[in-house]
Amino acid sequence: MPSIASPVPNFFIAGAPKAGTTSLYHYLDQHPDIYMSPLKEPSYFSSEVRPENFEPALRFKAICDEGAVRQYLNGPMDQKRFGGIVRDWEDYLRLFAAADKQTALGEASVCYLWSKTAAHAIASRLPRARIILILRDPAERAFSQYLHNLSASVVKHSFRKHVEISLHRTDTTFGIHHPFLDVGLYANQVQRYLDAFPKDQIGIWLYEDTKQQPKEFLSEVLNFLQVDPGFALDNSTRHLQPQVPRMASVSQVLRRNGVFTRLKNLTPAPLRPYFKSIAYRKTGSVKMPSRDRALLVDYYKEDIGKLANLLGRDLSNWLR
């Protein structure tokens, strides 16, 4: 008897990071005609994202995480897992083995937009795949990523210092300073996908538009994926919203020593919102300093002009 072909993905949420892609992953996962990989961000098609390419401070954790990913792949995968590098094609196919009658099978690895290898790798293996790209004002995207890292106690210094370190960094190992700024240089990244796929297989949205008209955006995505656009997706929850600590250095020490988790577990549930309000700043209250935005606008200005010409879109708001 001929073997039954394993299900393979036919669409990708390829980026950009901090542009609402995690929320989109969860929204699409609600649709009965869509199957999303239970492991978000397997990064299979991005050969740059491998533990051996990470900076030393992150490499050990990434290597250890491969063991956890292996256990996950060998299990039922009935719970979602955020992040985990998958190297082998057979392992990658396991992520879609449970797909049944769904017509749209997808995954979300936001490194695919920045990656110099992913577009060609996806096209070589899955030439009919559809690509979803969401592009965010690169200065705001960088600030959002900084806040995310601050929330995770990965950084503790100011945004300005973080940008300046990134600007002068020559080490190209994968870490918190690289490719922190490169991720927002969209023009060549988008061009790689336009070179690799027919234009009608690429859907490109601006983050600002998705925020202003979320229901229209989701309907457009469903149409793009050729599934029922009338199915109501619950988009009331925003995922991966940063929780910025009031004292970053203290938070970093507490997290590193495991004290933070122990304190959280010991705190009675009714009191947690109160202590959370003390420990963290109000969501959305931390804004990028105007002089820092000016520095980033100058850095991205030329690339924004190239992208505007490439897309035929007015991106002047990104230059203010």
List its salient traits.
320 residues; 2 domains; alpha/beta; globular; single chain; Rossmann fold; five-stranded parallel sheet; 7 strands; two-stranded parallel ribbon; 9% strand
Structure, described:
- With 320 residues, the chain is α/β, with parallel strands linked by helices.
- It has two domains: 11-152 and 183-238, P-loop containing nucleotide triphosphate hydrolases (Rossmann fold, 3-Layer(aba) Sandwich), CATH 3.40.50.300; 248-279, no CATH class.
- It has 14 helices and seven strands.
- Strand 3 (39-40), helix 2 (56-74) and strand 4 (81-82) form a beta-alpha-beta unit.
- The mean pLDDT is 89.
In short:
This protein is of the alpha/beta class and 320 residues long. The chain has two domains: 11-152 and 183-238, Rossmann fold, CATH 3.40.50.300; 248-279, no CATH class.
- Structure classification: alpha/beta
Give the overall average pLDDT.
89
Percentage of residues in DSSP E strands: 5-15%
The number of helices is 14
SSE topology:
Layout: E1 11-15, H1 21-28, E2 34-36, E3 39-40, H2 56-74, E4 81-82, H3 89-94, E5 104-108, H4 111-114, H5 118-125, E6 130-135, H6 138-151, H7 159-168, H8 186-196, E7 202-206, H9 207-212, H10 214-224, H11 248-256, H12 259-266, H13 272-279, H14 290-311
Parallel strand pairs: 1-5, 1-6, 2-5, 3-4, 6-7
Helix pairs in contact: 8-14
